[in-house]
């Protein structure tokens, strides 16, 4: 299992996740452990700033990451 946020998202085949093009953004190079440790408010803000990542995709990602 890879440890980047991008690989983790790609491995979770959930409807509504961002397209592979959206996942090319450098933010998704973040280590999964860093994404999980990041304060939820900060992660939400970062996801909203990304191009081609909508509110639905952000919610799906946050729900899949588990509790804050």
Task: Describe what you observe in this structure.
The protein is an all-alpha fold. The chain has one domain. 50% of the residues lie in helices and 0% in strands. It is built from four helices and no strands. The chain has helices at 5-11, 32-37, 40-49, 55-65. The protein is globular. The N and C termini lie far apart (22 Å). The mean pLDDT is 82.
Quick take:
With 68 residues, this protein is mostly helical. It has four helices and no strands. The mean pLDDT is 82.
In total, the number of strands is 0
Pick out the low-confidence regions.
Answer: none
Order of helices and strands: HHHH
Spatial extent as radius of gyration: 11 Å
Comma- or semicolon-separated keywords:
mainly alpha; globular; 68 residues
Indicate the topology.
Elements: H1 5-11, H2 32-37, H3 40-49, H4 55-65
